Amino acid sequence: MDAVPSMLEYIVRGAASAVLPMNLLVMFIGLVVGIVGGMLPGITTVTAVALFVPFTFSMPPDMALIGLGGVFCGAMSGGANAAILINTPGTANSAATCLDGYPMATKLGQPGRALSISTMASTFGGLFSACALLFTAPLLSKIALNFGVPEMFALGVFGLSIVTAVSSHSIIKGLIGAILGLLLGTVGIDATSATMRFTFGTTYLIGGVQFVALLIGLFAFSQCLVTAEESMKEYKREKRKKLDQILPSKSDIKRTSPTILMCSIIGTIIGAIPGTGGDIASWIGYNESKRWSKHPEEFGHGAPEGIAAPEAANNAVSGGAMIPLLTLGIPGDSVTAIMLGALMMQGITPGPLLFSTQTVDVYSIIISLFMANVFMCLLGYGAIRIFSKISLVPMKWLNPIVFVFCVVGTYAINNNIYDVFLMIGAGIVGYFLIKLDFCMPPIILGLILGGTVEENLRRTLVLSDGSFSIFLSHPIALVLLAIAAISLLSPIFLNLWKKRSTNKQSGN
After folding, report:
1. Rounded to an integer, what distance in angstroms lies between the CA atom of residue 160 and that of residue 442?
2. Domain layout of the chain by residue ranges
3. Between the CA of residue 95 and those of 24, 78, 90, 279, 448, what are the distances in Å?
4. Which of the listed residues 17, 31, 422, 432 has the most CB atoms within 10 Å of its CB?
5. At 196, phi and psi to the nearest 5?
6. Mind listing the pLDDT tens digit for each residue in 84-132?
């Protein structure tokens, strides 16, 4: 019973921190940045969060994380505006929204109705996942407190294997990306032996590869280069449509409520699984809503459930993805990978001890997710007309602005021009990696988790006098390593099975 008042006390203290005027202002700015970034084709959720990170370095930890949470929530919701109005998803998470959002806006002539349904679904999905985060994260953290050094090593390997296997079209390319990140993580002074590693005689690399410069280069600057290349294929712009309504009708609320609830649950569960993301959640939510709908024939022609389902699912991912991030230190997707780096730069190390060492900061983050979704709802309905116009801005004007933000944001970290050179170099490499169909998250996660994996492996071997048999006496570590091996090998066996089945069918 003592845990209940303690938890309530921390919730109150976290809420008191979240409602401070400056924190609310930063949250509002983050939401606007996220919504605008999410609705602009070519500027993804990852790009919006990555560009916002440098501006958080001078902020207190709670303020910085509240701002990043606002960007995260806003971008997850903002992508629907472009999907509905111009049939171009602002983010990959909103691709499924195009299927019914655009037909409702054009064929049915109800763009306002489509935007109001998406805003309602986004808000509920975000609030639902925030509730799940509030009640499940502390319980998981208590379980994780039993983790020792071998378990932490196995957990790091598990995180690397899951994300690598799921976030890339090719397991080989995913492994190459993760290995590249691990190699980058070895640059600088070895924390154990104080040996210089891969510094190439320069003092700039003594402290290791500058994380944020690398992050902005791989995610934001590389995307600038891709969109610049595609400038000749300018996104199709539709004529501005007159909005028919702002708020959802009672009939729409009644009709879409079961779908929103079901897809909020789906999105939260999928978000909590490392290696997944809003794009997967939105498609699963869309398919399941169509499967259980009383009017499946309306899907693809402007069905309200076809808009509510993907938006509720992808916004529910925001809270779900924070569960493994805060409790285990494992990011659920590329956005939370960036947030993991931002947390560590603020002196906050996600993991089992976080809820006991920095409890107030954690609860302020969780409460801020609630507030961010409420603010997002108010912004969504209050500024629908304004945001609908922003989505029509040509990319030839946006790309230079993003480029400037990349340079200024990178330089502002340490006032070091070499950071800018690193960012540009990483962006050029990232551009070619994108062209070769590589994913960026494995690289970043390899860089972030590589140090943890290396350190805990060394400590484990010290405890066992260099024997790997120590893992046999730690069941949790053994299970995690087994799951990691299965996640890495399962795509290979699955492809072999598919080829074998295809050959048998062709033989028949």
Report:
1. 7
2. 3-507
3. 31, 12, 8, 8, 29
4. 31
5. -75, 130
6. 776 666 666 777 787 888 788 877 777 778 888 888 888 898 889 888 8
